[in-house]
Amino acid sequence: MRSRWSSILLMVLMCVSVVTWNVIQPLAGWSQSSVDRTAMADQLGSMSVIAQASSQKTFTVPPLPYAYDALNSYIDTQTMTIHHDKHHGAYVSKLNAAIAKYPSWEGKPVEELLTNLNKIPADIRTTVRNNGGGHANHTLFWESMAPKAGGVPKGEIATAINQTFGSFEKFKAAFKKAGVNQFGSGWAWLVLTKAGKLEVTSTPNQDSPLFEGNTPLLGNDVWEHAYYLKYQNRRADYLDAWWNVVNWDKVNTRYKEAQSP
Question: Strand order of the sheet with strand 186-192?
Fold first, then answer.
């Protein structure tokens, strides 16, 4: 909503500037050749920057990095559409509404909000926890998948998985167990802990590993809205199928970035 009003304000200011310019120019006896149009361009450019900065204070749902039907063999198009547009969209709307009450928190990355929950004003803390977590978790989730992906991990993350879990198959078994055993709604995760070790874990609802200071590398949404249209109550089948769309290149990049000082 704030982004839309910023755009409207920009257009109004531009129209007022143009009208004023057209009135003053003939009254002052200026010709187009004698007028320095750079000032006008600079003024309009400044307005654009102001509007853009204002709009950047709000969170937005990132577009999917692939088509809604790109993963259709494993996650159906209707689920992807509703999940991304409706569920993720609702988290973002509620997060923006909460943060708007406290301008000092506007414009901060969602990761900063989630790692400093104890500093968030008490009256919006639960809202930020639930909806900020939902926004961060889903943003990572969309990026963790890709068409023509799956297979086995490569690079540094592959080495780390083998060293930590013994093999890729043992890691998959541990991850599936975390997802299946998560009671009710939640997430299964591969994280890099504060101690610099890989760990499989799960969180309830929209809780994020960031709450504990851990870095999420890979997460699978085991809320029913993520799989029920295609898999009904067969969460284990969904977890098995999901490996076919995991973007291991992205996971490897996250792992390397998390290790950087």
Answer: 198-204, 186-192, 215-221
Same domain, 111 and 206: no
Query: Higher confidence at residue 91 or residue 50?
Result: 91
Task: Note the pLDDT tens digit of each residue in 159-203.
Answer: 999 999 999 999 999 999 999 999 999 999 999 999 999 999 999
Global model pTM greater than 0.70: yes
Q: What distance in Å separates the CA atoms of residue 199 and residue 145, rounded to the nearest whole number?
A: 20
Q: Are residues 84 and 114 part of one domain? A: yes
Q: Give the residue numbers spanning the domain of 209.
A: 156-259
Is the distance from CB of 10 to CB of 48 less than 8 angstroms? yes
Q: Which phi and psi (to 5°) does residue 68 adopt?
A: -60, -30
Domain count, the chain: 2
CATH number where 114 lies: 1.10.287.990
